[in-house]
Amino acid sequence: MKILVTGVAGFIGYHLAKRLLERGDTVVGLDSINDYYDPCLKYGRLAELGVDEAAARAGLARSARYPDFELRRVSLEDRIAMEAVFAAHRFDRVCNLAAQAGVRYSIENPRAYIDANIVGFVNVLECCREASVPHLIYASSSSVYGLGTSRPFSAHAAVNHPASLYAATKRADELLAHTYSHLFALPTTGLRFFTVYGPWGRPDMAYFKFAEAIIRGREIDVYNNGDMLRDFTYIDDIVEGTLRVLDGVPTGDPGWIPAAPDPASSSAPYRIYNIGNNRPVRLLDFIAELERALGAKAKKRYLPMQPGDVYATEADVDDLGRDFGWKPQTGIRQGLEAFARWYGTYAHTGSIVGDRVNG
Question: Whole-model pTM above 0.85?
Answer without folding.
Answer: yes
